[in-house]
Amino acid sequence: MSLPQTPASLGFRLPAESEPHEATWVAWPHNRTDWPGRFGPIPWVYADIVRKLTSGEKARILVNSATHQSRARRLLERVGVDFTQVEFLRIATNRGWTRDYGPMFVRRPSGAGHRPGEVAIVRFRFNAWAKYPDWQLDDRVAERGARALGQRLFVARYKGRRIVLEGGAIDVNGRGSLIATEECLLDPAVQARNSGINRAEMVSIFQEFLGVKNVLWLGRGIAGDDTHGHVDDFCRFTGPRAAVLCQETNPRDINYRPLEENRERLEGMRLEDGSRLEVARLPMPEPIYFGGRRLPASYANFYIANAAVLVPTFNDAKDRLALGILAELFPDRPVVGIHSLDLVWGLGTLHCMTQQQPAV
To answer: pTM above 0.85?
Structure first.
């Protein structure tokens, strides 16, 4: 019996976020419990982000109903969005964090025999970060998106078992290297995604379904992150051989030691070609609390769009410093700050709410 074909065996890989997009996927917000007591400004924040995205690519917006779409459209009209760059998809969601449950797009270039380039979707399971009970609609978004676009769908399985993976748990350089944390993907007890699957098996899954050759394992994530260690809150690729890592300068802060330990790990790591990773440091904003709980405010949760790099800002003295550092790392596109004090009330910001669809 022949083995099922995997994306990697057919020449697909997960592109870097900085590679050209056809579109960015965004799920229009509707779940008020995600922003308790502060939902009011959230649709306006989403509208401003869509306006900036559509200057360089399409925005594919997921809506639950005709009424939901009508509300979104009215708000987008008021902020001056170019509707030739907007497409609504009637795909119901539980929450607005599209990064984690949205389609994970892989791409293969044109090849021998004039084979055309192709984008396909890898369908991982989503179970609300192994924490919340309402995830069933979100878990179907990838397959419904593949059907809406008429794209090939690969279901991620290992030894017959469906694999859980969120988009915010990984970041790639598009050349074969992937960053992830042990806290998120290998913890056997706390918010365990794939109980019983070990490090070597996770690497094999990345290789077969995302075309990854090399995994850089970091330790723990930042305080306040209820995903239990998503890497997109503190370490991101900024190029094929470059990354940015958050730095906490206050040794009494809870994030100081985990971030320093991750720095030490990165310094000894190599990329897929054996070269060293160039690591720039990005400051952490001052701690932000809600109801006595620390929020995962971080400048590393930026989103690399075609026409801009959108960066969360927090009315913090370090906002300008973070924007300046990222402007030097992304000289090919403007770096734009997005006020995110309201957004981070939902325990995520710009990268968490977006998912890129690469151009063919």
So the answer is: yes
Q: How far apart are CA 30 and CA 95, in angstroms?
A: 7
Residues whose CB is less than 8 angstroms from the CB of residue 322 and which lie 6 or more positions away in sequence, other chains included: 282, 283, 285, 299, 311, 313
Q: Does residue 2 lie in a domain region?
A: no
Q: Which of 184, 235, 246, 352 is catalytic?
A: 352
Measured N-to-C along each axis, helices 66-78 and 42-53 cross at an angle, to the nearest 10 degrees, of 70
Nearest Cα neighbor of 315 from 348, 286, 292, 343 is: 286
- Residue 115 has a pLDDT of 75
* Domain of 228, in residue numbers: 8-358
Q: Under 8 Å CB-to-CB from 255, ≥6 apart: which residues?
A: 222, 223, 246, 248, 284
Percentage of the residues of the chain whose pLDDT score is greater than 70: 98
Is residue 235 annotated as a catalytic residue, yes or no? no
Do 193 and 165 form a contact (C-beta atoms < 8 A)? Answer: yes
Q: What is the DSSP letter of 102?
A: S
Instruction: Please state the domain count of the chain.
Output: 1
**Nearest-angstrom CA–CA distance, 319 and 335:** 12
> Tokens 């710009």 map to which residue?
350
